[in-house]
Amino acid sequence: MAEFKSDIEIARAARKKPIMEIGAKLDIPAEHLLPYGHDKAKISADFIASKRNGKDGRLILVTAINPTPAGEGKTTTTVGLGDGLNRIGKKAIICIREASLGPNFGMKGGAAGGGMAQVVPMDDMNLHFTGDFHAITTAHNLLSALIDNHIYWGNELGIDTRRVAWRRVMDMNDRALRSIVCSLGGVANGYPREAGFDITVASEVMAILCLATDLKDLQKRLGDIIVAYRRDKSPVYARDLKADGAMAVLLKDAIQPNLVQTLENNPAFVHGGPFANIAHGCNSVVATTTALKLADYVVTEAGFGADLGAEKFFDIKCRKAGLKPAAAVIVATVRALKMNGGVKKDDLGAENVEAVKKGCANLGRHIENVRQFGVPAVVAINHFGTDTEAEIQAVMEFVAAMGEEAVLCRHWAQGSAGIEELAHKVVALAESGASQFAPLYRDDMKLFDKIDTIVKRIYRGSEAIADKSVRDQLHQWEAAGYGDLPVCMAKTQYSFSTDPNLRGAPTGHVVPVREVRLSAGAGFVVAICGEIMTMPGLPKSPSSEKIMLNEQGHIEGLF
């Protein structure tokens, strides 16, 4: 049945339970749920605080090979595995990110899973949901407005208008706003200066919300944001502008995790949404740590391939939050492996075992990379109807030759019934105690050495390179006490290199670091590599062209 319906049609037909019933499954009292309609709710800060000293369940990371237009299904597998674990008698919660409007109306599509492995309400999740992204956008832009207002009214802090580091944001792809000049129009409008917009998911406020442990920590981190520098290059913080209090007020509800459900009425926390190609790519620490107190297993995902999302999950989120993942799942599809083996998208329907074998080099690289963090992994082959037995067998044999196991999963078509084998394998891995998790690099390494370590060990490049101005900036931050921060790589998601067209498993490439940005509140340094943009553009034929309301008033075209 699922093969003949779109994701949104399947989601619309879901038999959802009232959100209070989903909360009751987790022993969350009704008074600690703030409902947004009948099918979604926020969990109160008081309830979260009451569980802080409880015993933790086991944390499972779902990651993937490098994304291709053929599709990998990482979120679909995350949702399917959560349902599968519940099916075999384990108490499991899914923790995923919220969807950005940018890719929804651009090219990538939604972020609620697919087929019979979805989180619902799918349409709300992919649109305005509970307003978290709007709150983040507003808090960010309040700070932007306060900077220009402070300069207008005499600039008591001595901000050098040439060194304002804080840009504006919006939750939409719009290349025209990457670089702007603001305050034009005469004296009444302030002092003209160059500025620009990033997409909301690249905002430091988004990263702060996803890494903060509670409201007090949130406000402290907001105050730590460096917004500009003076002529002597000393920093100006958000707290100097008295912005942190008002920003925290705008985010007081947004920091509370959102509770929804899967198609099989299992609980899912959907909270936060930093991109993994330009930010740290993980759902909120509050959602993950709370879920660990309420379930035997928490299944979470990290954005894009393991070279970006998983690396940042391990090196930033786990490091900062003290998390210790018990096992990982690496998602691959036969179709995507064929694309990595050189097959064009239009030709993916034809059997091509040799291309599968060639493309497996990309999968093998990700298996090796996850191993470097000491986390045991299993490969999930997300099944498509066009996959042939010979192609599937080629993947199985490749993974076995690497000393790991691959499991064929049919959750897209069959829901939890199609992923039971993977659920049992994950439980065995997690309960074996084999995980010896450790981050890739030490806190006390130099910032550029951290970047170079990721380039060499994860991307298999020959070296990271940067202009003297970039290296000097890193040295200045080290001298100011920020040298122990982890690094967040902003790089194309499509390749281990900075060339999005170089698929497979390239080696020996150089990774140029174009710019570095200090996110002092979030607690990391962003290294912008190659041509990656922190404000994406729309494709020639954006998804928005197909999104509309039908005659019944139902949304069509979301996927």
Question: Which shape, going by the Cα principal axes?
Answer: globular
Average predicted confidence as pLDDT: 95
Largest sheet: 12 strands, mixed
Number of helical runs?
Answer: 19
* Domains, number: 3
Relative strand content? 15-25%
- Examine the secondary-structure arrangement and name the CATH architecture of the largest domain: 3-Layer(aba) Sandwich
Class based on secondary structure composition and strand pairing: alpha/beta
Give me the count of strands: 25
Describe this structure in words.
The structure is a single chain. The chain has 559 residues and is an alpha/beta fold. The protein has 3 domains: 307 residues, Rossmann fold, CATH 3.40.50; 117 residues, Domain 2, N(10)-formyltetrahydrofolate synthetase (2-Layer Sandwich); 83 residues, Formyltetrahydrofolate synthetase, domain 3, CATH 3.10.410. It is built from 19 helices and 25 strands. Helix 7 packs antiparallel against helix 10 and helix 9 packs across helix 10. The radius of gyration is 23 Å and the shape is globular. The two termini are 17 Å apart. The mean pLDDT is 95.
